Structure formats: C-alpha cells, structure tokens
Amino acid sequence: MCTGIVETAEVSGSGKGPEGWFKLEQVNVSYDHPVDAAFEHALNIDFVNPKEGPGARVAVELNPNSARKLVEAILTALARGEK
User: Fold this and answer.
1) HSE on the CB side for 22, CA within 13 Å?
2) Measuring CA to CA, which residue among 58, 73, 66, 51 is closest to residue 20?
3) Across-strand partners of 46?
4) DSSP 37
5) What residues does 7 pair with on adjacent strands?
6) How far apart are CA 31 and CA 1, in angstroms?
7) 21-49 pLDDT tens trace
8) 13: how many CB neighbours lie within 10 A of its CB?
9) What is the C-alpha to C-alpha distance for residues 20 and 39, in angstroms, rounded to an integer?
10) In a 3-state reduction of DSSP, which class is residue 81?
C-alpha cells in the first residue's frame, strides 16, 4: 500500500551533500514510489535543511526489508553505545 503521507521530524546533526557538510534540521520519511530505486515502493528518507535550499539534502530510498534492517541496526548501535 502506498500512502504518500510524509512523516516529518526535527533532527539535529550534519549531512554531506554536493557542496560539503551542512547542518541537518529536519527529516522527511514516506512510503511511496521511489524516484531512482528500481522498486515499486520504497521507504524514502530525506534529511534536509530547508533554510539552505535544495542542495542541503541527503536522500535515501530503501526497499522495505532494507529499511527494517536499518531500524534494527540503529537501535542496536544506540543500545551498545549508550551503556
């Protein structure tokens, strides 16, 4: 099922785009048709800084299985690192 709904959250960090490193302020996440990946649907993640324009963006398109593996890897890394 394709929702087209975008979940948005404030984030704090850094991303590297074509112009170099920039401050991250927001992440947009959706389950929809990808732009580039060869999947019918993908989890689309865009880390952005709207104040810096379209060049301040890091985009990722993952198939559902890869997205779940990413979530597991993030949670495992946080659990290990926060001990």
Assistant:
1) 20
2) 58
3) 28, 59
4) S
5) 29
6) 8
7) 999 999 999 999 999 999 999 999 999 99
8) 9
9) 29
10) helix
Q: Note whether 64 and 47 are within 8 A (CB).
A: no
The two tokens of residue 14 are 């850094």
Q: What are phi and psi of 63, to 5 degrees?
A: -70, 160
Q: How many residues does the chain have?
A: 83
The token pair that represents 70 in the structure block: 């990413």
Average pLDDT, the chain: 94
Distance of alpha carbon 23 from alpha carbon 12, whole angstroms: 7
Please, are residues 24 and 49 in contact by the beta-carbon 8 Å criterion?
yes
Rg for the chain (alpha carbons), in Å? 14
The amino acid that residue 77 corresponds to is A
